[in-house]
From TrEMBL:
Protein name (database record): Putative Na+/H+ antiporter with cyclic nucleotide-binding domain
Taxon lineage: Bacteria, Pseudomonadati, Pseudomonadota, Alphaproteobacteria, Rhodobacterales
One example GO MF annotation: potassium:proton antiporter activity
Origin: domain of life: Bacteria
Residue stretches spanning the membrane: 30-49, 61-80, 100-123, 130-154, 174-191, 203-222, 254-272, 292-308, 320-341, 361-380, 392-421
Pfam families, A to Z: cNMP_binding, Na_H_Exchanger
Protein species of origin: Oceanicola granulosus (strain ATCC BAA-861 / DSM 15982 / KCTC 12143 / HTCC2516)
Assigned keywords, A-Z: Cell membrane, Ion transport, Membrane, Sodium, Sodium transport, Transmembrane, Transmembrane helix, Transport
Length: 834
């Protein structure tokens, strides 16, 4: 075939892609539906001109279109990895984890149920063997990521609804393709009635192997990209190779799921990339992948739609009944999961609540597309599949895909509107009127200054000011007439606005490199949680989310357990350093929010709401400062190095801004500017490196802070620090229980504990100790000790404590003072002095 003609056809397809977007906006239809319709029209036109006798002039073009090398492997190995990888890069993973249960239920359980439902329904009404029916069920059970994601983004669906449907569409491909491979093997071997159990038992291997392969590929890719960190084009090139190598490696090397490998690689890069790559390189990488995915998504729809006329050839009247059976069985299976299993999981507290309108939208939003057609095409390409099976697979899969795109896709916007998911709440509508009024007042002031600065004609200014004043008067009146906003609603709206501004401030600081890319994702997730928690729970929801943002999570407690029990310190070191930097970044952001409350929120909601927001903001700052102070007490040297790093990065940002301003003003040329920026980049790379946290060194620093160790020389201090064990305990944990033997003494490096004995309580803080009385007195231990704040304890066993007590007079004095305070006699202490 003429290469020039093929090139012209491909270039023309890009023109179709360019025209489809404005056409979709004009017709208010989903972009992917327009692409599918245009692709079908091109395919039908090519068949028509090739077979008609009206003219032969367009035959070469028709042959070029129909002769494009469209095979199932092109979709699965070229386009699908691109779409999946870009979608994972653009996901807010930490927010998606909040809904991981419904996402996994829809991505795995729903696929299996749909496969079985469609398979057994077809086996009941068609002459096909059960295995062929199950194969069709697997083909039509996967929602297409390029169809679903583009449609839900185009209709401005609620964020949570979009997250659930996008997460499902990304992960269910793996389950569907795995089932497809199993049943395809049975069909080619001529097994009429396979055993479902052993087939499903391979799922963990396929998924686990794919996840491991994708993670390993991403880690290697990140290591290479970090080496090329200064060369953005090299970094982007490595990222382009990553999903394809992960897919092929998983599929061909270990027989695992290539789809899962791509998703795992994308998730790993999403989480680790911002911290390992320069911010500008990461931003450019994301933009390149957005463009690649746009082209891939559009081409996969057009090329798949070109196949539809050929796949539907040979359709018989009875086939429409089978298509109806597939549609009903697939929708019924999805409804059982959404309205049966998910509410049951919510009742059992295994899943967060997914509201009924959301479930209805998810039911109708289960669109199929190019992935389903590609799997059907793979069946029709196999010479080992019976002819009738190939014919029905092509017709049923294509018919069902057309139904989801042309019926569900075109009506999804209407369904979203009918469910009320596209409308602002009464509170949001009220606040929009308030915002318009304040914005127009600000615009009037700015316009007045502009007209004075440029000395414009007074008549023109007067006429325009009159028209603008009328609009402003209407906006102010509408805002003042809003009587349905209670004060608690105004507080909620003010907090939502404050959290939104916090999010924008974080993005600004990331762009300025004041906050590192590694910290951007978790801090942005905290801001998103603040917004959503405030929408749901008002002031209380905001406060809960704020406390959660500084709380120790389950992963941190696990790292502490590994350190305390197994002496594995690496996870704790990494997470403690992350916590340090995260708290420093939060403090930086929170201190910028007060001005926003005064300049914006006070004008919209009044002084009472503004004062309350200042109070809530002050509480958040106190919480962050307290958490930071606790870390400083534990790791004073590390805290100092992190703050020095922050100052160096801020200075470099200011230096870069000065060079850029001089370049724009023409004070320096391009050559000088380039040399200065190269030198700046080298110094920035050094400043970006985070100081290493050494728990052993920090322990030695902590020991010197205790006054009763002041008389020990350096050698004794080093020996003591080696003998002490560091133990991290969260608030509310019991350290010592009543009537239990105690063989260690605990020194409080940071935090606080409460001792309870015979109805009396004592509280001890930093620089104090406990446990010495149980060792030195002969009384039965009846005291319980629990932490009342996250605490760092230094633990010394009984033998070393007695030895240290003999050598240290200040320690003996501290023990005696503590005993006298509680009325306890310590005869053994007197013997040590003798």
């Amino acid at each position: 075939m003429d290469i020039v003609l093929i090139t012209a056809v491909i270039a023309s397809l890009f023109l179709v892609i360019a025209a489809a977007e404005p056409l979709a906006a004009r017709l208010r239809l989903p972009y992917s539906v327009i692409l599918a319709v245009l692709g079908m029209m091109i395919g039908v036109a090519a068949l028509f001109f090739l077979r008609t006798e009206l003219t032969d002039a367009l035959n070469p073009v028709a042959e070029a279109i129909l002769g494009l090398p469209i095979r199932s492997n092109v979709f699965l190995y070229v386009f699908l990895p691109t779409l999946l990888f870009q979608a994972t890069l653009g996901m807010n993973l930490r927010r998606m984890l909040d809904d991981w249960v419904p996402i996994l239920v829809l991505a795995v359980v729903a696929v299996v149920v749909a496969t079985l439902s469609v398979g057994y329904a077809l086996a009941w009404v068609s002459p096909l063997p059960l295995v062929a029916c199950l194969l069709i069920g697997a083909i039509v059970s996967t929602t297409d990521p390029s169809a679903v994601v583009s449609i839900f983004r185009s209709i401005s669906a609620p964020r949570r609804l979009a997250r659930i449907i996008e997460g499902e569409s990304l992960l269910n491909d793996a389950a569907a393709i795995a089932l497809f491979g199993l049943f395809m093997g049975f069909v080619m071997r001529g097994v009429p009635d396979p055993e479902i159990g052993p087939a499903l038992a391979r799922f963990p291997i396929l998924i686990g192997g794919g996840a491991a392969a994708g993670w390993l590929a991403a880690r290697v890719g990140l290591w290479v990209m970090a080496l090329f960190g200064r060369h953005e084009l090299a970094v982007i090139s490595v990222s382009v190779a990553l999903p394809y190598l992960a897919y092929i490696g998983a599929e061909q090397s270990i027989g695992a799921s290539g789809v899962i490998a791509v998703v795992a690689a994308g998730l790993t890069l999403n989480l680790a990339g911002p911290g390992r790559l320069p911010p500008q390189a990461w931003l450019n990488l994301r933009e390149v992948w957005d463009l690649l995915a746009h082209w891939a998504g559009a081409l996969i729809f057009i090329l798949a739609a070109l196949l539809i006329p050929r796949l539907l050839e040979g359709t018989r009247p009875g086939d429409f009944l089978l298509i109806g059976v597939v549609i009903l069985a697939a929708i019924a299976a999805r409804a059982v999961i959404l309205f049966g299993l998910l509410p049951l999981l919510t009742l059992l507290r295994a899943s967060p609540v997914v509201e009924r309108p959301y479930r209805t939208a998810i039911l109708w939003g289960g669109l199929r597309g190019a992935v389903t057609l590609a799997l059907a095409l793979a069946v029709t390409e196999s010479f080992r599949v019976p002819v009738e099976v190939k014919r029905l697979v092509g017709i049923l899969a294509t018919g069902f895909t057309l139904f989801t795109l042309l019926v569900q896709g075109t009506t999804l916007r209407m369904v979203i509107g009918w469910l009320g998911l596209d409308r602002l709440s009464s509170i949001d509508e009220a606040i929009s009127r308030q915002v318009v009024a304040v914005a127009l007042q600000t615009v009037r002031e700015d316009v007045a200054r502009t007209t004075e600065a440029y000395a414009l004609s007074r008549d023109i200014v007067r006429s325009e000011a009159k028209a603008f004043g009328e609009r402003l008067e209407l906006a102010v009146k509408a805002a003042e007439d809003t009587t349905d906003i209670l004060e608690r609603d105004r507080i909620t709206l003010g907090l939502i606005a404050l959290a939104g501004f916090e999010r924008e401030t974080i993005l600004d600081r990331v762009r300025e490199r004041t906050i590192s890319g590694a910290m951007a994702e978790p801090i942005l997730s905290d801001a998103d949680r603040l917004i959503e928690a405030t929408r749901v729970g008002g002031r209380n929801g905001y406060q809960r989310a704020a406390r959660r943002s500084v709380a120790y999570g389950g992963a941190f407690r696990l790292a502490v357990l590994l350190h305390n029990r197994l002496r594995l310190s690496a996870p704790l070191v990494r997470m403690t350093s992350d916590r340090f930097e995260r708290l420093l970044s939060q403090r930086l952001i929170l201190r910028d929010l007060g001005a926003f409350v005064d300049t914006r929120i006070r004008r919209i909601h009044g002084p009472r709401v503004a004062d309350l927001l200042h109070e809530l903001l002050a509480r958040r700052i106190d919480i962050v400062e307290t958490a930071l102070e606790g870390l400083r007490l534990q790791y004073p040297g590390h805290a100092e190095e992190l703050e020095r790093r922050f100052i160096r990065r801020t200075a470099l940002r200011m230096e870069e801004r000065e060079y850029t301003a001089m370049r724009e003003d023409g004070l320096i040329g391009a050559e000088v500017y380039t040399a200065l920026m190269q030198d700046l980049a080298g110094r920035r790379a050094l400043a970006e490196a985070r100081p290493r946290l050494d728990l052993a060194v920090q322990r030695a620093v902590l020991v010197r802070q205790f006054p009763f160790f002041a008389d020990l020389d350096e050698a004794a201090l080093r020996r003591l620090s080696r003998s002490l064990r560091t133990r991290y305990v969260d608030a509310g944990r019991v350290i010592v229980r009543k009537d239990t033997p105690l063989r260690s003494v605990y020194f409080i490096a940071s935090g606080a504990v409460e001792l309870e004995r015979a109805g009396q309580t004592w509280r001890l803080g930093r620089g104090e100790m406990f446990g010495q009385m149980a060792i030195l007195s002969d009384r039965t231990r009846r005291t319980e000790v629990r932490t009342i704040a996250p605490s760092t304890l230094l633990v010394l066993d009984e033998t070393r404590f007695r030895s240290l007590l003999k050598r240290s007079a200040p320690l003996r004095n501290a023990v005696r003072a503590s005993a006298e305070k509680r009325g306890i006699e310590l005869s053994s202490l007197e013997e040590m002095e003798l």
